[in-house]
Each structure stands twice: as structure tokens, then as C-alpha cells.
Amino acid sequence: MGTRGIYVETVIDADLDRVWAATQDPEQHVRWDVRFSEIVPEPAQDGEPTRFRYVRRSAVHDVHGSGVSIGERRRPDGSRTSALRFSTADRLSPIRTGRGYWRYAPTGDGRTRFITGYDYDGGWGPLDLVVRPLLGWATAWSFDRLRIWLEGGPEPETWPLISALQPWRRGRPRASRTLRAPAGGPRRRHHLHDAPATLAALPEPGGDR
């Protein structure tokens, strides 16, 4: 994996159940997360990992990949986690394989602290020096897009990616509203140190079809 993991944290003025629903439902997930255009899960037994297919569409090329994830609803501290691994055989993809987690922590005043940490093997060699910061930015921007929606603001579709270049649009998502490293910690570190144990137990995502 890369030498610099990606970390994003935000606090959403919504209860944990609502944040969980908006992020664990594939149809809702792709509405706010600019990194994915489509996520199609395969049937799975309760408590077992879920395999899925994903697509990231663009005007130039569509990247297809596969993944596996598992959620953990009940933890002693009241938080929840979701772990995943993903991969693609597409040589044009800037990401080949990766792994990461989401953590949902109630704040005690009805809000939810939503955190991600992930890392990946790049597919573009030295160009990952450019790709990695862009992916970190896209993740942070998407988290703020989610926050705005769940706090009663416009739905995610109101804010296409081009809105990031439209400063005259008030209330637009901004990556700068999120934390890009744990409080008091540096960005340049391995951000999977706080990953749930379920991440290490996940099987390989599997090849593309």
C-alpha cells in the first residue's frame, strides 16, 4: 500500500441510525460519494461479508471493479464500523487494490462522528503523487456533501462535482470543512491503525467479470 494513507473525519448533526442508512445502502451511497457511480451488492447471509461490483463512470472511461465489505452494528462503546476491500483489473484505473474502514461514533449530543481511513496500491506509478491528494480531496468533499444533506440541506444531486468550482453558490460542499487527520495527528501516517478487526478477516475481493 501507499506510504500515505487517506483519512477524513466530519461531525454530522444527525443520529447514528440515519448516517448508517445513508452510507450502507448502495443506492443512497452513490448519491453523495463522488468516487462511485454504481454499487451492486450480491446476496449475503446475515453477519457474513457482502460482495459487490462497482463502477466509476467518466466521459473518458468507465472503471469496473469488485469488493467485499462487512458492517459491525453493535460495539461496547455504542459505535459502529464497516470494513471493506476492493480491487480492479482495469489497467486504466488509478487504483488497483485497496482496503479501508468507516467508523460511526455517537457524540453524546445526538450527532455522529463519521470517519474513514483507507489506503491503496496505485495503478499509475509516479502519477500517484498527484492522484492520492485528489482522492483525499474527493473523499472529504463527498463527506461534506453527505453532511449537508443529512442536516436538512439540499439533496446530493444539487451539488455536482462542478459546483466545487462555483464559489458564488452559497452552502456548497467544501472539503476544507472536514478533518484530514486525527486531532493532534499528522496527515502523513498509516491511517489504518484504528481499523476494526473485521478488516483483517475479510477475504480477497475476487477478480472482475
Descriptive notes:
This protein has 209 residues and is α+β, with helices and mostly antiparallel strands. The chain contains four helices and seven strands; from the N terminus they run E-H-H-E-E-E-E-E-E-H-H. The protein has a seven-stranded antiparallel β-sheet. A hairpin with a 5-residue loop joins strand 6 and strand 7. It is globular and about 45 Å long. The two termini are 24 Å apart. The mean pLDDT is 91.
Contiguous helical run count: 4
- Helical fraction equals 10-25%
Largest sheet: 7 strands, antiparallel
Low-confidence stretches: none
Report the β-strand fraction as a percent range. Answer: 25-35%
Q: Helix-strand pattern, N to C?
A: EHHEEEEEEHH
Outline: globular
Order of the strands making up the biggest sheet = 1-7-6-5-4-3-2
- The total count of strands amounts to 7
Overall mean pLDDT: 91
How many angstroms separate the termini? 24 Å
Secondary structure class reads alpha+beta
Radius of gyration, in Å, reads 16 Å
Report a brief summary of the structure.
By secondary structure, the protein is an alpha+beta fold. The chain has 4 helices and 7 strands. The protein has helices at residues 16-24, 26-32, 128-150, 197-201, and strands at residues 6-12, 38-41, 50-56, 63-72, 80-87, 95-106, 112-122.
